[in-house]
Amino acid sequence: MAKKQWSYCGKMKDTPYQTIRTEDGVIEGHHDVDNRWEFFGLPEDMSGVRVLDIGCNVGEVSFECHKRGADVVGVDFDSAILRSASEVYPGPQYWCVDVNDYPNGFAQVLSHKWDVVLCLSVVHHVRPKPLAKLFRELKWKRVVFEGHEKSFNHKHDLKRFWKNNKLPGKIVYVEGSLESARKRPMWRVLKKGK
Asked: Quick one: which of 33, 36, 41, 73 has its CA closest to 56?
């Protein structure tokens, strides 16, 4: 019998990117929200909080926020993975947009105010200029970034990116989560006065 293939980053893989929990059991992925939630600095009760999950993949983190009461929109460029997300983790809205094509397709995203924007292990897939433009034009209060060895791998990398692009807010570095026996840098960005 052929092994199930999972789409992510535009490629088919043997293991899903995020852990998938269903009524039939758990399919272990490369990332598991249980190992990372405390580093996000988000409350257990997220009632009334508007969340944008950029690069949501199969929707595990979007769904966790939704379970805690948040109004969540997950965006990803991979329409196949978003179909899986809506089946496996229903509740959040899933929109197919590509940050690398910004501003194309982002009118709906830009029309909302976001309390929290999640950008978890996605920066290494995105070109810096569109990402900077997106964060300059988005209406947000707080951003959580998770780094990757191919992106912001040092605790000062995101600060340099933020400063060089004249983006608003104060960056707080948080020691990274332990996952796959390696630390991933984590940052929280707060808008001034929020």
From this structure: 73
